[in-house]
Design brief:
Helix content is 41%, strand content 20%. It has a five-stranded parallel beta sheet with strand order 3-2-1-4-5, with helices on both faces. α4 links the parallel β4 and β5. The structure holds 4'-phosphopantetheine (PNS). The site of 4'-phosphopantetheine has 9 residues, from β1 and α4.
Length: 164
Amino acid sequence: MKRAIFPGSFDPLTIGHLDVIERSIDLFDEIIISVLNNPDKNPMFSPEERCEMIEKVLTEVDSKECNLIVDSFQGLLVEYAKDKEANAIIRGIRAVSDYEYERRMALMNKRLAPNIETVFLMAAEEYSYVSSRLLKQVFTLGGKVEGLVPRVIEEKMTERVFKN
Ligand code: PNS
C-alpha cells in the first residue's frame, strides 16, 4: 500500500495544486491531502472551509484506483505522516525560487523520519507562476483569477471577499 501525504496551506487550493493531485493519482494507492492548521497565519479560509472546498473539487476528479482523502493537521508534518503510516510526502516545485525552501524541508523531514520519502513533482509549465498568495492578492484587488482556481473555489472567494 503506497500512501502519500500532500501537505500544504491550500488557502486556497489552486489549479496548480489540483494538477499535482491528478498526476499523483497514478503513483499512489492513497493520497491524503492534508491542510495545515496554522493559527499564526491570517488565512482567507479556515482549515475546515479549505477541507470542505477541496472535497467539493475532488468530486469532479477521476481518482481511478487511488483513494483520495482530505484531512487537516497541526504540528510536525513527519509526526502526522508517521501516524497515518504514509511512505511519502508529495510536493510540487514551480521554479528555482521554490527549490531552496523545499530542499531544506525535505532534508529536515528525511532526518526526522528516514523512512518517509519526499517526492517532488514539477509543476505544469502553464501554472508555474500560480500561487495561492498571488491569487489572493490579485483577486482582492479586483483582478480575474478565472481558470487559475477551480470554479467552486472562485465562487467561495467571491463570497468571502465581495459579499461579506
Ligand atoms: O503550502 P505551503 O504553505 O508551502 O506548505 C508548507 C507545509 C505545510 C508543507 C510546511 O509548512 C509544513 O510541513 N508545516 C508543518 C510543520 C513542520 O513540520 N515544519 C517543519 C518542516 S521541515
